[in-house]
Amino acid sequence: MFANCHIFCDNIVCGQADEAYKRKLKYCKLDNLFSCFAEPIAQFTSQVNGTGIAQSEEEFEQFCFNLHDYLPYCAKQWIKRCGSMMHLEIIKRTYLDPLQQSMKTFCDPQNGIRPKFLANAQCLIEEVKLATAYRGECVRQIQANMEFIHELDGKMSKKKLKFCKPEMLLECGIEPNAMFTSTQNGSGIVNSDDEMEQFCFNQVDYLPICLKQWLTRCSSPVTSELIQRIFIKPMKKAMIEFCDRNGPIRNEFLKYSNCLIHKVKLSKSYRRECIRPLQAAGEFIHENSISQRTPSFTEYLTNTCCAFNKWENCILSHLTEHCGKPSADVFPYLIHQGTLNLLRHLCQPLKFDPENPKHCDKNKFIAPESLTPKGLHSNSILSYVFSYSCPNVGWGIVPERDW
């Protein structure tokens, strides 16, 4: 990496750079991330009874410090140094923050859980943790799984750079949907049983397989497993429920889909009041982010979530007005459990209310009126994907249509 360094710096600086890079490579092994979990627990275990179960108030305090304070701090430091800001934000919100919250409740001396746990600790140790059956059936399987993951991680070497571009991951979602969209109404909304079958194949069969292939080839086993657990598996499960021919959701959605398409999604008012602000916001946020000397992913995500939630409020308002309240109750299921599941998971309305100035700064996520979205020709992923997926309503496709 620093082979040509000596052209523009002296030996001391180059040597320091080489050493820093080597230290980072050594530090960023997955073993060091696992140490955040294993090391304090192992140290705690060696001080008590070898089972990892606290039996006294003092042991419980040490256990709570390890899991509530040390572990999240250690994991955040590793991710900051070895991953991206996106990795940090996703893992923080989906794992570390919930862990701290649950441990805070568990460790609260005033909470009834703590004394109940300590009262049963002795029985748990003697009858379960030190029992031969537990060691044979549970511990052996856990150790075998960890060794398998470690072996897989060691085999991850050179990646196929062309395939591993983020654009290829996006294609998993937008390519089949764009092909599907072009064969019907261009709004991205199904309107018949045949269209629903094609849509369900894309969401239940093609998309999860495509995502898994990309993750297997282009990410570590830990990242792949994390994304599959928090996004792919829940999405697939929800879409199977949505697509069930005998289920209430599918038939209810088809009942309102014609109104949704013709009175909302293809209407000039929806395009002007909902889509234009969303795509303009995506491009506005993107340009502001890249203009910063040190772009903040947290700020970028916050502003994107505010824009996304504003669009959702807008389309639900149009649905209620033109198709009735029941239609507005069915449509969010498609948003929350389909391909936008991850965005909805990150953009919880209670945390990113576009009308609440404590959550969302309108100067940062609402684009100026003078900004006309480029859509398909934009560098904003949000704006580009929207036009690609919904060509009849997206911007940047037919210039004469964009006012």
Outline the structure in words.
- The protein has 403 residues and is mainly α.
- It has two domains: 5-155, no CATH class; 166-401, no CATH class.
- It contains 16 helices and no strands.
- The chain has helices spanning 11-27, 30-47, 57-82, 85-107, 113-129, 132-155, 166-182, 193-218, 221-243, 248-265, 268-291, 297-323, 325-337, 341-346, 362-365, 381-389.
- The two termini are 49 Å apart.
Q: Secondary-structure map with pairings?
A:
Blueprint: H1 11-27, H2 30-47, H3 57-82, H4 85-107, H5 113-129, H6 132-155, H7 166-182, H8 193-218, H9 221-243, H10 248-265, H11 268-291, H12 297-323, H13 325-337, H14 341-346, H15 362-365, H16 381-389
Overall, the morphology is: globular
**What is the averaged pLDDT score?**
74
As a whole number of angstroms, the C-alpha radius of gyration is 25 Å
How many domains? The number is 2
Strand content: under 5%
Record field, number of beta strands: 0
Structural class: mainly alpha
Largest sheet: none
What's the quick description here?
The chain is mainly alpha-helical and 403 residues long. The chain contains 16 helices and no strands.
